[in-house]
């Protein structure tokens, strides 16, 4: 079998006390529960009446339970009363192991190199007792002809049923605490980082920054690119060749990385199915003035997968004094009104006017706007809802619903708990910070969210912050810039497929690539936070799942069924087709097989379809076809901080020279030739008593220098750690976490390793001494031994 955790086996214990299920707890992420259909186990919707030991958690629903019961009676009809009394218990236990949460291990289904067993792997002591009492049932339980020849020999028979990994044999696995503790709960590493996996859904996109559904029963999803293209996808993930919307000639953006202008938002009217209306938010240039524009479009009367481009009606235009902080979210809340989230106008510190745009209710910048776009075919493009909070305040714009926001990037409406509807209608937003903090807010009518007086929980403008009339609302969560520098708001998970995630607000950071989750604590009335890591080892070893993603998290989304997605890219440029849409998956527990089924309404397709082909796969995954997938593409490990925007085009990548150049005249930081080999590494800036971590310094051509953290990922860190004598890299450190090596030159930048290199200098890089970074981006590592800890995908 495949490599599995080792734990001492002890005698069998009561199963019901071990198969605990509900609630979120932290445990080491080592076991790999898996069913015979290559998917995670689940809690059956109905109580099992035959395989009752797995009624709380396992791999069988009531239909499979009935099927196994019928098989049991068919076998036991061959026995008299004495044989029934002796063997019925064994037969039931063996048949019901198809329902075990570890069924794939028991039947060797998780290992493609071995045939599927007809009987589960048995522990020697149990097998011996079974053979002595009931060996006559072997041929009735299995049609494996190999077992017929072994039936008469206990030693050979039991050796045949042994598993390579004895920890998983039946029934000892039931009493193995490492395999049964908190079974079915979201797993986490020792730092509390939740282990999830992802599934690739779409790729080849240029800065995909919005994915929405039309709520029309078709379960199509629509992905918008920053350049002004929107693509329509069918439920099978095939894409229509013709764009759903193309306004690239009107949208204002550029190729340079970090340009915040462009096509920024898209939403469908709640009654799109009947009125065909949708709304977009994009940057535009009118004369010399840059503006943000919110427009209404209608669907084509002749093609349900194409917008009528002549139907555009401008709802609102707002002058932008600078090219950044453009906001970009549009959505319909539960009240049926259109919400528009604008930025503060750009530059730094909201320098406009006495108090800035955000605190000025007479301007539409730095606000949450709320308008009524129903029944607007005649007359003005929108009306003001009668309960807008500042409707009657002199000097205030009546569209304003909330103010004091800096640059809210991605907001969402909570669908509410699927059963109780608790939380339904809340609007969550990520508000991008200035110098110190990123924050998450819940938007409420008439509230002041503090900017520019406050940034997160701290004062930014001390004079404004001390104003007693500020009356601002604090965020539900804020994090410092050492963890990330540009929040990307997400969604409260309310889907069906991942029941453990219900109620978690999942969001990320564009710059650091971190993904996080907030969960409301009803006792403290606070929001508990967890980091999200990609599962290591076998955690994501399921068909179609992978455990890494491109680092720049641009946006989150949910489909019509409420499942959660996010979009990220490897190169944050509107010209780079490196954007991917991922679906988040909890590998520890799924919903019962038939619970989440739905039947999409048919879609009339005119034109060609492009079938989806994932570009990455997980080498640990197994498939029913018993094929191993190819190694993953090189990309930055999620969760590690990534560099700020600097370049419009990627640096030229070169490999390390075969021979070192002749050292030139000595300078500060150089060593005498011969004392160190070319490419030698050392760690600097280590915390006291922790020699396994520090800033990476490399010796090249007679001098020591530092490594820039551009493209620095766990794979490159792994090469460095192994070169230094450690087993693995636990983390790729960035942003001069272990101090700046200012006395040295920066010798390597854009380091990209395959993982098999003997030394770091053999990895691809921009050329010795060639860099486009500063010492505030010096790279580092946290190393460990392979057996002592698993590497985490979180910084």
Automatic annotation (TrEMBL):
Keyword field: Disulfide bond, Glycoprotein, Secreted, Signal
Start and end residues of each stretch annotated as Disordered: 609-692
SMART domains reported for this sequence: SR
Alphabetized InterPro entries for the sequence: 6-blade_b-propeller_TolB-like, Folate_rcpt-like, Glc/Sorbosone_DH, Quinoprot_gluc/sorb_DH_b-prop, SRCR, SRCR-like_dom_sf
Start-end of Low complexity biased regions: 619-647
Polar residues: bias regions: 648-657
Main subcellular localisation: secreted
Subcellular location: Secreted
Domain (SRCR): residue spans on this chain: 681-784
Biased segments, Basic residues type: 659-679
Positions of disulphide bridges: 753-763
GO cellular component labels: extracellular region; membrane
Residues of the signal peptide: 1-31
Family to which the UniProt record says this protein belongs: Belongs to the HHIP family.
Full protein name: HHIP like 1
Organism whose genome encodes this protein: Paramormyrops kingsleyae
């Amino acid at each position: 079998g495949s490599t599995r955790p080792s734990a001492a086996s002890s005698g069998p214990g009561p199963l019901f006390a071990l198969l605990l299920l509900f609630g979120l707890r932290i445990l080491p992420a080592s076991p790999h529960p898996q069913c015979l259909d290559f998917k995670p186990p689940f809690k059956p919707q109905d109580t099992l009446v035959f395989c009752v030991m797995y009624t709380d958690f396992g791999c069988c629903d009531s239909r499979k339970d009935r099927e196994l019961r019928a098989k049991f009676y068919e076998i036991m009809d061959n026995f008299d009363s004495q044989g029934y009394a002796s063997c019925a218990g064994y037969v039931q236990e063996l048949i019901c192991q198809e329902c075990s949460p570890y069924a794939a291990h028991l039947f060797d289904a998780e290992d493609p190199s071995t045939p599927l067993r007809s009987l589960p792997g048995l522990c020697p002591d149990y097998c011996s007792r079974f053979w002595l009492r009931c060996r006559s049932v072997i041929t009735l339980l299995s049609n494996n002809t190999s077992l017929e020849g072994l039936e008469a020999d206990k030693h050979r028979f039991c050796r045949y049923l042994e598993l390579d990994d004895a920890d998983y044999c039946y029934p000892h696995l039931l009493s193995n605490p490492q395999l049964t503790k908190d079974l079915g709960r979201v797993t986490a590493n020792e730092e509390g980082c939740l282990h999830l996996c992802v599934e690739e859904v779409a790729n080849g996109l240029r800065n995909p920054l919005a994915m929405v559904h039309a709520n029309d029963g078709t379960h199509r999803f629509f992905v918008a690119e920053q350049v002004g293209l929107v693509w329509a996808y069918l439920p099978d993930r095939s894409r229509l060749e013709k764009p759903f919307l193309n306004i690239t000639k009107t949208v204002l953006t550029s190729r340079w990385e970090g340009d915040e202008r462009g096509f920024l938002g898209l939403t469908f009217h709640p009654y799109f199915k009947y009125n065909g209306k949708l709304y977009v938010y994009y940057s535009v240039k009118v004369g010399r003035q840059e503006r943000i524009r919110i427009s209404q479009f209608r669907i084509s009367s002749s093609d349900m997968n194409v917008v009528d481009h002549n139907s555009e009606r401008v709802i609102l235009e707002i002058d932008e004094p600078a090219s950044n902080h453009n906001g970009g979210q549009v959505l319909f809340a539960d009240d049926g009104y259109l919400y528009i989230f604008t930025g503060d106008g750009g530059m730094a510190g909201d320098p406009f006017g006495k108090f800035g745009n955000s605190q000025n209710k007479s301007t539409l910048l730095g606000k949450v706007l709320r308008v009524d776009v129903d029944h607007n075919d005649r007359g003005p493009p929108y009306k003001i809802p009668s309960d807008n909070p500042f409707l009657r305040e002199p000097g205030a714009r009546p569209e304003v619903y909330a103010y004091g926001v800096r640059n809210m990037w991605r907001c969402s409406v909570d669908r509410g708990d699927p059963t109780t509807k608790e939380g339904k209608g809340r609007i969550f937003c990520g508000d991008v910070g200035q110098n110190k903090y990123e924050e998450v807010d819940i938007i409420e009518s008439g509230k002041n969210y503090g900017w520019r007086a406050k940034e997160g929980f701290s004062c930014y403008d001390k004079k404004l912050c001390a104003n007693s009339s500020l009356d601002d609302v604090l965020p539900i969560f804020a994090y410092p810039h050492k963890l990330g520098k540009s929040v990307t708001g997400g969604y409260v998970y309310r889907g069906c497929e991942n029941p453990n995630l219900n109620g978690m607000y999942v969001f990320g950071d564009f710059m650091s690539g971190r993904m996080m989750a907030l969960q409301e604590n009803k006792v403290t009335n606070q929001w508990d936070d967890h980091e999200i890591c990609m599962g290591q080892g076998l955690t994501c070893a399921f068909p179609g799942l992978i455990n890494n993603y491109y680092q720049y998290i641009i946006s989150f989304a949910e489909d019509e069924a409420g499942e959660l997605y996010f979009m990220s890219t490897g190169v944050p440029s509107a010209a780079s087709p490196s954007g991917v849409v991922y679906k988040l998956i909890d590998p520890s527990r799924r919903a019962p097989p038939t619970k989440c089924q739905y039947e999409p309404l048919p879609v009339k397709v005119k034109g060609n379809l492009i079938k989806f082909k994932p570009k990455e796969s997980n080498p640990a995954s197994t498939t029913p076809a018993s094929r191993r997938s190819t190694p993953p593409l090189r990309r930055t490990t999620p969760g590690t901080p990534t560099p700020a925007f600097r370049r419009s085009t990627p640096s030229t990548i070169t490999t390390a020279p075969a021979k070192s150049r002749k050292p030139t005249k000595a300078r500060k930081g150089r060593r005498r030739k011969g004392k160190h080999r070319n490419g030698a590494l050392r760690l600097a800036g280590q915390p006291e008593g922790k020699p396994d971590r520090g800033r990476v310094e490399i010796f090249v051509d007679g001098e020591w220098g530092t490594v820039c953290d551009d493209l620095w990922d766990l794979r490159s860190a792994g090469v460095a750690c192994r070169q230094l004598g450690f087993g693995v890299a636990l983390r790729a450190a960035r942003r001069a976490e272990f101090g700046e090596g200012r006395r040295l030159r920066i010798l390597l930048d854009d380091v990209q390793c395959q993982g098999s290199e003997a030394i770091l200098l053999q990895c691809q890089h921009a050329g010795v001494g060639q860099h486009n970074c500063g010492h505030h981006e010096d790279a580092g590592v946290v190393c460990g031994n392979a057996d002592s800890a698993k590497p985490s995908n979180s910084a």
